[in-house]
Write a structure and sequence with these properties.
two-stranded antiparallel ribbon; elongated; about 260 residues; 2 strands; mainly alpha
Length: about 260
């Protein structure tokens, strides 16, 4: 039994690119998804990528081989972070609301990150994941994988000056999304805190802390319930922007 080394090397690089992509993107690459399932998906993507006419050159030494692996790793990290910034912005917005509602100490374990997050952040993250799956956003990562094979060959990346500008713009979106999604709730809770400060100043005998915290939590939950429909709409729109950023980052990698 003979094995064509060129075909085997091509499959190995395809598997590396697919593996790094699957393990770094959100939802699919979350820690509560079994590793065997992610490995099987990476093998399937690599097998499907064999039909693409991708040119592959053998490395001239161990150093070049390490660089090839690092380039494929960079592709998975960049694509994963481009998508994860949206979920990070949603989680950050939930933290803002949780702090203003007085629920900063109420934390729950997030199964995707295996970290303790505020309760409101966990709730909004669940809603975001459901919206993401409903619009078939998980299929965008597979589409990005196959499109990357058309834009730039395996083991080759081109990072120019536009790359730094793009990264800064992505980092800015985290804070923009955090404020945009929860702006109405944030504004109302801020006005309630101002009103309670005025009441505490006018009537110092009243224990404003005992009265204010239940009011903030109650009004915050009511606002969160009524803003759920608009929140899902904003989530879907931000995910569509994320899809556009995925294709933009692939074009930047291809030069």
């Amino acid at each position: 039994m003979t094995v064509d080394l060129a075909i085997f090397y091509k499959f190995l690089l395809l598997f590396l690119r697919a593996s790094f992509l699957v393990f770094f993107v959100p939802v699919i690459g979350s820690r509560n998804v079994p590793a065997m399932a992610k490995a099987g998906l990476a093998l399937f993507l690599a097998y499907m990528g064999m039909s693409y006419p991708v040119s592959v050159a053998f490395p001239k030494g161990p150093t070049e081989l390490v660089l090839v692996v690092l380039r494929e790793l960079l592709f998975g990290v960049v694509v994963g972070m481009t998508a994860r910034f949206v979920f990070d912005g949603i989680q950050l917005g939930g933290q803002y609301i949780g702090y203003m509602m007085g629920m900063a100490v109420v934390n729950i374990m997030n199964p995707q990150e295996e970290t303790a997050v505020p309760l409101i952040s966990y709730f909004e993250n669940i809603v975001a994941v459901l919206v993401f799956l409903a619009i078939r956003g998980h299929l965008w990562f597979m589409s990005a994988y196959f499109d990357s094979l058309k834009v730039f060959p395996l083991g080759v990346l081109s990072l120019g000056v536009k790359w730094s500008v793009f990264v800064v713009r992505l980092l800015k979106t985290i804070f923009v999304i955090a404020i945009k999604v929860n702006a109405p709730i944030f504004a109302v809770l801020f006005l309630i805190q101002i009103a309670m400060a005025i009441v505490a100043r006018v009537i110092p005998q009243m224990n404003i802390f005992m009265v204010g915290f239940p009011i903030q939590i109650f009004i915050g939950l009511i606002l969160l319930m009524f803003s759920l429909k608009g929140m899902t709409f904003l989530f879907g729109r931000e995910f569509l922007f994320m899809k556009r950023n995925l294709y933009e980052v692939i074009k930047l990698m291809g030069g």
